[in-house]
Structure formats: C-alpha cells, structure tokens
Amino acid sequence: MKIELSGDTFYPVGALENFLPQIGRVVELGDLPIAVFRTSDGRIFAALNQNPHPKGGPLAEGIVSGHYLYDPLYDWKIDLTTGLVQAPDTGRVTMFPVKVEEGQVFIAAAVLQQA
C-alpha cells in the first residue's frame, strides 16, 4: 500500500515527554497506525507502522541508533530522515512531517490517499 500525503494540517499526538529516546511508540492518526521515534539528540520522526519488507510487520519495535531504525524482524536499516531502506536492501517507509511546539508533538496529515 502506498499512501500519499498532501497538505500541512498538523494534529497533536501527545506530549514530548511521552516519547522516550530510542524507543518507538505507536499512535493512531485516523485509521493509520503511526510509529513515532525520538532520537538520542531529541529529534522526532513519524512513520507508517508498516515495514516495507514483502512480509510486512510493525516498525515500532525497531531499535533506534542515531537517525537509523534497525528492524528486528528482517535486520533492515532504515534512515529516519528519508524513510529509505539502506543497501543492500531496498524499499521506502512512508514518513510523516512532525513538529514540536510548547512540549506537544504534532504530525501532519491533511489528505491521505491510498494509491
């Protein structure tokens, strides 16, 4: 499933303090499960909680190191800044824009279209 994101409407998904460094947490945005990750340098990333591997699986249980997510099921390395799976594997994770304001985490989701 490919999801295209357009627009710039941000929705609150929780307080920053609820997202622990290097541990994924799943939030629901509409009907979509979104994996939210906080890196050791404090940046927040949000991805569709769906592994691009042909067999699928969740991403939230992955291990965060730097700006990379290491998938525990298939040992894939995913760049959280781009969503790209690193070589020798290939694929892309659907990433969502994130912002933090006044201690709250917001994820962008205006129009979600399945293609």
UniProtKB/TrEMBL annotation:
Protein name: Nitrite reductase small subunit NirD
Biological processes annotated in GO: nitrate assimilation
Keyword Transcription regulation: no
Domain Rieske: residue ranges: 11-107
One GO MF term attached to the UniProt entry: metal ion binding
CDD domains the record matches: Rieske_NirD_small_Bacillus
NCBIfam families (alphabetical): nirD_assim_sml
A Pfam family per the record: Rieske_2
Key word Metal-binding present: yes
Keywords: 2Fe-2S, Iron, Iron-sulfur, Metal-binding, Nitrate assimilation, Oxidoreductase
Organism: Paenibacillus mellifer
